[in-house]
Hints:
By secondary structure, the protein is of the alpha+beta class. The chain contains three helices and three strands.
Amino acid sequence: MSEKRFSVPVAVRLGAAGQRMIFSTWEAVECLKIQWPRNHGPKYRKALQACMDALEGWKPTHKARRAFVDAAREAGIFLEVKPLH
């Protein structure tokens, strides 16, 4: 099972742990299961399932990334990162 890297990393703010960049579906699953805020909304469950499905090859990585971003927004931990030009 490959870690399925995201095309663009996702930045999240995780309380005392600070900012973290998520580079792959494997890291997203780890973040969702271990570091996520306690209040899990419906988008949390969708993101966890989408990332697990992507790891198994049943769903495209870009859909897992989108679901992870949606869950991070729902939890209020998504950080908008502007590219440097």
